[in-house]
Amino acid sequence: MGAHRMSEWKLKRFWQAANVADAEGGYAVQLDGRPVKTPAKTPLVVPTRALADRIAAEWDAVGEQIDPAAMPFTRSSNAAIDKVVHQRAEVADMLAAYGDADLTCYRADGPRGLIARQAEFWDPLLDWADTKLGARLIPVQGVMHAPQNPQALRVLSDQVHALDVFALTAFHDLVSLSGSLVIGFAALHDLHDPQTLWRMSRIDEQWQEDQWGKDEEAQEMAARKESDFLHAHIFFNLSRQGQ
């Protein structure tokens, strides 16, 4: 969820060792016994020992200077504490809105091969959402928006709002990167491994590549997004582990 301004981070390494300590509400990460703070100066406290250990490992791995790009678990936890805590309902509403325009519901009206491929991968996802999440979304052909059943959207929205702050932080990336609320939930429920779910969100792009060949720039961007998607899945699992 958005990189922090670099200026806040230009710190040289001043600590010998990072460690994890019990704290109110979870586990704190400390540097030489002093608590790590978020960019908004809140103590970095996370819900599970597993996540705290991963963050401490990032701080232990720092060379001479902090490089936020090499510290994704610290960054995601900062986002949860500094941003999502204060805008939880808004973030949940924004993500729930994907259900009314879910990637898996937007079907091509040609060519036949693409229609078949979308149905092969996306129909089972919609069936799963019906049985597991209790919401039946209906696919539509073409790019015009067709509203979904409000009852189904409400059921999905309630489940988004039920996520805790750390889960919601991970879910933000799983949904916004894939373009699909259904794929986001499938990732939380481990319906398939995250690489498979990511590929399911790229059916259209893969079809274009198969027809026209690969575009290097587009591939680089897709690789970055895939890496962020996979990170979000790990972050979610770590924020749950042992709870």
Question: What does it look like?
Answer:
By secondary structure, this protein is of the alpha+beta class. The chain has two domains: 6-82, ATP12-like (2-Layer Sandwich), CATH 3.30.2180; 87-238, ATP12 ATPase (ATP12-like fold). It is built from ten helices and six strands; from the N terminus they run E-E-E-E-H-H-H-E-H-E-H-H-H-H-H-H. It has helices spanning 49-60, 72-82, 88-96, 112-133, 150-161, 165-178, 181-188, 194-200, 203-212, 216-238, and strands spanning 18-23, 26-31, 34-35, 45-46, 106-107, 140-141. Helix 3 runs parallel beside helix 6. It starts with 17 loop residues before the first strand and ends in a 5-residue tail after the last helix.
Overview features:
243 residues, alpha+beta, ATP12-like, ATP12-like fold, 2 domains, 4-stranded antiparallel sheet, two-stranded parallel sheet, 10 helices, 6 strands, globular, disordered N terminus
Tell me the layout of helices and strands.
Elements: E1 18-23, E2 26-31, E3 34-35, E4 45-46, H1 49-60, H2 72-82, H3 88-96, E5 106-107, H4 112-133, E6 140-141, H5 150-161, H6 165-178, H7 181-188, H8 194-200, H9 203-212, H10 216-238
Parallel strand pairs: 5-6
Antiparallel strand pairs: 1-2, 2-3, 2-4
Helix pairs in contact: 2-6, 3-5, 3-6, 4-7, 6-7, 6-10
